Amino acid sequence: MPFGNTHNNFKLNYKVEDEFPDLSKHNNHMAKVLTKELYGKIRDRQTPSGYTLDDVIQTGVDNPGHPFIMTVGCVAGDEESYEVFKDLLDPIISDRHGGYKPTDKHVTDLNFENLKGGDDLDPAYVLSSRVRTGRSIKGFTLPPHNSRGERRGIEKLSVEALTSLDGEFKGKYYPLKSMTDAEQDQLINDHFLFDKPVSPLLTCAGMARDWPDGRGIMHNDNKTFLVWVNEEDHLRVISMQQGGNMREVFKRFCVGLKKIEEIFKKHGHGFMWNEHLGYILTCPSNLGTGLRGGVHVKLPKLSVHAKFDEILGRLRLQKRGTGGVDTASVGGVFDISNADRLGSSEVAQVQLVVDGVKLMVEMEKKLEKGEAIDSMIPAQK
Amino acid sequence: MANSFTRMISGRNTAVILASVGAGSLTSGYLLCDSTADAAERRKLYPPSADFPDLRKHNNCMAAALTPTIYGHLRDKTTSNEWTVDQCIQTGVDNPGHPFIKTVGMVAGDEESYELFAELFDPVIKDRHNGYDPRTMKHPTDLDASKITSGMFDERYVLSSRVRTGRSIRGLSLPPACSRSERREVERVCVTALSGLKGDLAGRYYSLGDMSDREQQHLIDEHLLFDKPVSPLLTASGMARDWPDARGIWHNNEKNFLLWINEEDHTRIISMEKGGNMKRVFERFCRGLKQVEHLIQERGWEFMWNDRLGYILTCPSNLGTGLRAGVHVRLPMLSRDPRFKKILENLRLQKRGTGGVDTAATGDTVDISNNDRLGKSEVELVQLVVDGVNYLIECEKRLERGQDIKIPSPIPQFRK
User: Fold this and answer.
1) Is B345 helix (H, G, I), strand (E, B) or coil?
2) How many domains are there within chain A?
3) CB distance from B68 to chain A under 8 Å?
4) Does the annotation list B326 as a binding residue?
5) Which residue segment(s) compose the domain that A14 sits in?
6) A227 and A328 share a domain?
């Protein structure tokens, strides 16, 4: 909650063992790392804006875990959370991001020209291409913690920045709370509209407070560039289009991001970023690039091949249904995207998607002809 | 006092004493340790006007009462447990309202909330409790069940009888605000007290977290188990945090006296049985409550209560007696009569489906209970239900015989 350390100073009067949460039935990253000793060591800390350890972990305490997905179980309330609670967050980050060490440096590369190829994915198979990331605005606390005043401040700045864009980025902002029915229907039909979060993973972290105050969507006239304001993060930036020209999607993504960043910087509110964690976002799983680049691709034969999951693993890719995370695939069409976020650059991650999808489409074609694909299975990337 | 909380001495007892004499703003002024310099900076950068919630589409008691002026007075205050008005109203901001039910839209985090944020709570209480003014009126408490007359219903009509209320343990924060150790202390205090109950009240405790599958199934089959709250009215207030830690159910061996621990309130106490003996249900209710109170007092604890607001509970709608006394009653003809609604209204009764609040009536059986909670005593409210249900049964019998029925004159709101 905003404005200071509500309740934490009072809780310090109680013994550690009385306050320590019961994590015996829990299966998330936070529960694996947080011991009573660690809790006792850092529970009296708070960030300058008053975010506390209990705030960080509440979502993980309330949500013991998904049977199939290892959830993170904690969130940041502000940029400083990652520093003040590093004793908890560093091991979680390491666990979640393939052994990333506290001394590692993350490379940011948003030069779309460094991407090789990506403009020739077969549109008979690759139905659509999309890249998304998140950005947090320096000087404001994050969605789990911010007050209504701050959230509105973020919206105001964002609207100024976004409505000043021109060329292919020229567009309009739709605040959630004053949307007309016609606008709402249109945004739903375009698959742009985001809902109030219902997942308890999110609501228990306090991100849905005061909905829909301060929330909205901007999209360009061409409907290929989209920004969500104040959903799970301050900003979610999305570039997408039909077909397989991932190169064009990524170019628009990088150019658009740079333009937006310049405008925010001019107002004295650049994006939260540091050389260890890259872009700072609410959930530790989105640190680094915060980037998910993916395609909707038809792989009916490959997807039922015995080695499909192994191939994906080696290509450092993940599959989802076409409804997004936690959905099943429909008609052999899968959402294929990069699995990594931290420790490799944007260009590197999109490169993996481009190369990996190209290979998988070729495998699909081979399987259509009744040929074997064993010789095509790649080494671990 | 043989418990770890005696170590909490000065801060706790000061808070308890000050809360109970209503010196909320004094307390907060004295104990307000500014959290951080940064937080103070923030308050300056974002004055109350920047934070005032947008309530234009809202329809709850809080939204009707909250003005920018009141918010400006209250935003920067904190109780001695560091609870704020923003935390009180969050549930009402997040839940604009039910089209048919006017929800309250705010909760208390501790006893002191009702004092410190009285400028907002008082008009909300007045709105919800039919004009009861906490500034000028006194709430009567009366748990003497012997005063009830005609408390045995015709069992051809009344299938079951039930009385419930809630109690809060003074000195510990309420469910929206409590820390894990406070919640665990509520559990310890209650379970220790309940283990001292004897005779027909002797029973056992089932902790929600440690329950075996068999125990859980047993409690479900007996309709005794409560679920993790899913209603956003409750989850948005923070009451479901850390579930199922320190939550549980206690019931006596007869299964007609039951306590819920740390659900929406510190405790919910229920007395119930099949059939129409409301007098016996209320008698057991009062006896059980008195004994539990006595057992916690032996260990230096007490219930939150004052003469303005009666028993202090999390939701302002449950202040006063916190009491809902009701029956499941068959009224096939009366429930279809167009005058039924008006009869209930004048008798100050409400109907619900037999699944509880927000459910529809199935078949001919309805749940009938008192509308009011604050401004009338427990005995008065139960007598009102007894007299009212007897009247409804009389109407049903008259309709069966082809005779006409009358709408009774309305019962007055408060004693003068």
Assistant:
1) helix
2) 2
3) no
4) yes
5) 5-97
6) yes
Residue type, A337: S
Q: Bridge-partner residues for B329, per DSSP?
A: B158, B366
Secondary structure of chain A: what % helix, strand, coil (to 5)? 40, 15, 45
Whether the CB of A146 is below 8 Å from some CB of chain B: the reply is: no
Contacts of B352 (CB under 8 A, 6+ apart): B326, B358, B359, B361, B366, B367, B369
* Cα B358 from Cα A378, distance rounded (Å): 59
Q: Which of B52, B76, B81 is the closest to A7 by Cβ?
A: B81
Cβ contact, residue pair B86, A1, below 8 Å: yes
Over the Cα atoms of chain B, what is R_g?
22
Please, are residues A151 and A227 in contact by the beta-carbon 8 Å criterion? no
Q: Return the amino acid letter for B176.
A: P
Domain ends where: A74, A97, A120? A97
Structure tokens at A295: 């395609």
Cα of A237 to nearest chain B Cα, Å: 26
For chain B, 416 residues long, give each residue's pLDDT as a single digit of tens.
Answer: 333 333 333 333 333 443 343 333 333 322 233 445 676 777 788 999 999 999 999 999 999 999 999 999 999 999 998 899 999 999 999 999 877 778 999 999 999 999 999 999 999 999 999 999 999 999 999 999 999 999 999 999 999 999 999 999 999 999 999 999 999 999 999 999 999 999 999 999 999 988 888 888 888 777 788 888 888 889 999 999 999 999 999 999 999 999 999 999 999 999 999 999 999 999 999 999 999 999 999 999 999 999 999 999 999 999 999 999 999 999 999 999 999 999 999 999 999 877 655 566 566 899 999 999 999 999 999 999 999 999 999 999 999 999 999 999 999 877 54
Give the burial class of B178: count Cβ atoms within 10 A of its Cβ; 0-12 exposed, 13-18 middle, 19 or more buried. buried
| CATH classification of the domain holding A218 | 3.30.590.10
Is the Cβ–Cβ distance between A125 and A299 less than 8 Å?
yes
CATH number for position B303: 3.30.590.10
In a domain, A258, yes or no: yes
B354 appears as a binding residue in the annotation: yes
Q: Are residues B201 and B277 in the same domain?
A: yes
What single-letter DSSP state applies at residue B238? T
Cβ A142 vs Cβ A151: under 8 Å: no
Structure pTM? 0.88
Q: Quick check: is A155 in a domain?
A: yes
CA distance A200 to chain B (A): 10
Looking at the structure of chain B, the number of domains it has is: 2
Q: Is residue A361 part of an annotated ligand binding site?
A: no
Nearest-angstrom CA–CA distance, A279 and A291 = 10
Whether the Cβ atoms of residue A272 and residue A279 lie closer than 8 Å to each other? yes
For B180, the closest of A19, A49, A152 (CB atoms) is: A19
Contact A49 B179 (CB under 8 A): no
For residue B104, what are the domain limits?
Answer: 48-129
Interchain proximity A208–B240, CB inside 8 Å: no
Q: Which tens digit of pLDDT belongs to each residue from A156-181? A: 999 999 999 999 999 999 999 898 88
Question: For residue A16, what are the contacts with CB-CB under 8 A and spacing of at least 6?
Answer: A36, A39, A40, A43
Residue A242 lies in a domain: yes
Of the partner residues B38, B39, B94, the one whose CB lies closest to the CB of residue A211: B94
Segments in A190-342 forming alpha helices (H) = 200-203, 246-266, 308-314
**Alpha-helical runs (H) found in B245-349:** 278-297, 340-346
Q: How many Å apart are CA B354 and CA A234, to the nearest integer?
A: 45
Question: How many Cα atoms occupy the beta-carbon half-sphere of A73 within 13 Å?
Answer: 29
